[in-house]
Structure formats: structure tokens, C-alpha cells
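Model it.
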Amino acid sequence: MRLSTACRTAVTTFVDNPSTPQTSRPRGVFFDLDGTLIDHFHTLYRCYEYALGTLGLPVPSLETIRRSVGGSMEVTLGKLIPEAHIPRAAALWRAKFDEIHLEGVEPLPGAEWIVRAARAAGLRTGVFTNKLGHHSRGILRAIGLADDLDLVLGAGDTPYRKPQREFVQIALERLGTTADESIMIGDSPYDLDTARAVGMRCALVTTGTHTAGELRAAGADPAMIHPDLHALGRAVFGFA
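Modeled.
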């Protein structure tokens, strides 16, 4: 990506200005995937619809499932169906997702721009997600962002999930940065808790399933909540 002169100036000011406190100048940035970089919700809904329908269970509305997602597919199922049905429903969900996971993927506004601007600014860039790692890498290849990332780490790549501290520590080690010099970009309280697990900064967008009010209620700094990645990139990094 070729940055404009104004963008390069803003990036240089943010990243390299010696008068800027070190805690304000990240070397690494982690992006959540679903709800942050991509909209994949209709494909996810088809998997819930298939799993619950196959078991003869009521299928909640798209909006009900949208309000229930977060953390992991099993956590979401636990909000929707009796516990005894979760193992079978999860197996059916995975089988369907394996089949259709490259369908219906839409990069969210500003996704390519912010990832490539961060990379052009010399930041280490990673995707850090609870979506299965091999699915995440395939999706990022399909939308043309894989080559702009230094790391893609997801569920199944380690024994852990966000927001577990061990998972965050592995992500930092593989990206080659520390918590003090990194920032988490996400869309949910899970992303906030992930950053908190190691004392990392966190900036959030409301393009996922949580409103600004819900993110504030979870403890997010109101100044670090933004309507989309364009607004976040300008406010947090100074990208133009």
C-alpha cells in the first residue's frame, strides 16, 4: 500500500516522535477478526440454523443469535439451547462451517486500509481471534490480507482461547512485541478482557455485535470506542 504524504507524516508523528510517551507508541497491533475486520455473520447464522434445525430444536432469529455471539461457538450455543444438546450441536455447526466458511465474507469498511497503513508505518501486524486458526488464514487469503500480516493466531493453534492470559502471551511472543508496546483492536468485551489480561491497551469499534454503551459498561475507555476502523485509525494512530 502506498500512503499519502499526509498519512506518512501522521504515522511518523505518532510512531517516532520522541516527545510522545512510549506507552502511546505501539510497535505491534493485534486485530480481532469477526466484527472488526470482517462481517461473516450471515455465514455463521447459517451454521447455527443448520445445527439446531438438524436436532429439531427451535432456531432463534438472526437478531437473537447476533446478540448472543461472543467468546466461542460453544459459549453462544450455551445461551441458546439446553446444555445436553451442545456437544452434538457443536459438531454439526463445525461440519457446516467447514463446508461454507469461505462464503459470505465481507471486509468491513477500513479493514484493508488500517492493516496496510499499520504495516506501512512499520508496525508488526497480527490477527488474534477465537475463530479456528486454519479457517482464519484461509479467509484472510481469500480477501487479500494474508500478505499484510505478520501473524494469524486462532483457536486450535494453541490449547487456549481469548481472553486467557496464556493465549495473549503466546500471541505477543510470536508477534515479537511486549504488552506495553502493543495494542488490541476489537469489537467486544472479550477483546477488552484479552488486552486487560496482560495490561495491553485496547481500542474498539462498534461494527460487531456490541454497542458503544455496552462496551462502556464493560469498562472500555469511552475515548477508545469508535464507530468504524476509519475513525479508529485516525484517532488512535493518526492515519489520514
